[in-house]
Amino acid sequence: MVSDTLRKRPVAGATGQQRSQSTDAGKGNKVDGDTSKKNETGSKRSLTFAIGGVLTLLGVAGYTFMRQPRIDIHGPDVPSSTATASQTTLAALESVATKRDDARKRLDGLASKERREEAKRLGLLTSDEVDAILEAHERSWYVSTGSDAPRLRVDTNQVSSNAPIEDYLAWSPLASTQFMFGVFDGHAGYMCAEQLSTRLAPMLSESLKAVDKLIAKDGDKLIANDGDKDLAPTDVGGTALKLRREAPGIAWDRVPLALTATFVRMDHELVTDSLAEFQRTRDAATMDALLGPAVSGSCGLVAVVDTEANEVVVANTGDSRALLGVRLGDGRWKAVRLSEDQTADNANETARMTREHPNETSVIHRGRVLGGLMPTRAFGDCRYKWPLDAQRDLFPTLYERGHRYATTPPNYTTPPYVTARPVIVRHKLGPNDKFVVVATDGLYDQLSDDEVVGSLGQWYDARSAGMEDNSLTTQDENAATHLVRAALSTDRLGRRDDTVIRRLLAIPPPHSRRFRDDISVQIITLNQ
Questions:
Q1: DSSP string spanning 245-310?
Q2: What are the pLDDT digits (tens) for 78-91?
Q3: Which of 69, 132, 271, 412 has the fewest CB atoms within 10 Å, i.e. is most exposed?
Q4: pTM of the predicted model, to two decimals?
């Protein structure tokens, strides 16, 4: 069997899951234990043919060169690093692509046990090749928050295991001192996560404006009021109004209400409105575009950082995670969770599911919703939401068109079983709160919360002290790159060695999914 350095670590609170849509590989997936790969869509920047071709070979681009590389972060003014890749970096990436292609030929067709043994015998990547992979999609920039307010520093990175990667990142300014940072981890196809990465931020801005109208009418309490007839029930403002009417006497805060309304309305558009539109037109030419995002699914986590109010509000649907790095008075670092993973391992989620579907013993089966879906909350995933008659009507055609998850789960009697309504955490930022980590579950498969914050804290301390010894702690200038390197250099016993990452990154997709997931990270450094 494969050595311990190749295995995912059994981290508390982490799950070894996988995403979705075309080539089977691995186990522990979010959807039914199957793996599929997204047909990724492109970044907004054009790259040279050489860069695009190499990235395609490495599994970080779309299936054709005409579809540009999708490893990217959606948002304004984000610097591009791959467009200026050096010839040395290109040569290293080409070498990695060649090695992985050779390794894939050795691994394809082998049974599981033999494949794991063969993976153990693959050659290691060089340190230069590892650096080229880690630096290919790193980004760092500063966000101005006004003349009197401190800046935010943002570091992001993504490293794929799936081919192509299935994670999306997004950021957006909401006001001069208020910013949104999101991670969207797709499954059962790429289309739902892709839609979230481009549409959710504008909807959140619209939602905040709608909530401000409610505040102007009712004051800061935002308690249910029947006087808001001008808000249409079909828009995000109407969704906000409906939410507060569902809980009479409960006071909502501005940002939590806007976030909740945005998540709920976004999912309604993806799942319910798209179904109604297709049923109205029955236009086969629009079927994939309309219903593809509903058939696929995605987890979604959004953090809203407000430097004027000194707070961060996190909305989470699924199993991505947000952490706060706190510097204690004695110099130690403390990890504070700003979200909870929403899976069957969460007792609160299991209790909710059982309460909403009484007398259904299979509502959580084998640790999954109806035995299939790992997260208990998600966008899309219409197979857990659509009425049964709609599934019977459309799923056979959708399946024939390549939507392999257009199938009805067993014991499907009282839908919907999955919700996109987020769980909200609001935290008042203090002087010792130094950074926020927003990441997909691939990071937490490798590192515990304390290891994430501790490793990142060491990076901050070393850089503050001016240390530049090219060690694991100081060699990366990008905080997200440092964290990804630390995660992939750590074996299941917590030991760090660069041979671990050199071996892990040598294993080609789809076989790499047995050892690691896609990792996407955003780090927001406060008070810069």
A1: HTSTTPPPPHHHHHHHHHHHHHHIIIIIIHHHHHHHH--GGGHHHHHHHHHSEEEEEEEEEETTTT
A2: 665 544 578 888 99
A3: 412
A4: 0.85
